[in-house]
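Usage

Read records sequentially. Each one opens with the input sequence:
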Amino acid sequence: MADEFTFDSVESPCVGNCCLDTEDICLGCYRHLDEITGWLSADAKTREQYRENMAQRKARKEKFLAELAQKSEDQASDSL
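and closes with the structure output:
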């Protein structure tokens, strides 16, 4: 019974913006397709690992977008 409580204590990170990129990563929650399809059968420890994976993916994407925005700003300034 305790395992069921732990299992249910990790809520799905789905935000209802389900669209996969070219690497099968959801643009809404940052889960890989395998993590999405395995969510219901995963135990709490595995779900927490999925959440860590998601956080790392999100951080990488945000860093990439920030660097891209900075590069774009730099190029715009250089062209003035």
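Summary fields computed downstream for this record:
- The helical segments are 2-8, 33-38, 44-78.
- The chain has a mean pLDDT of 87.
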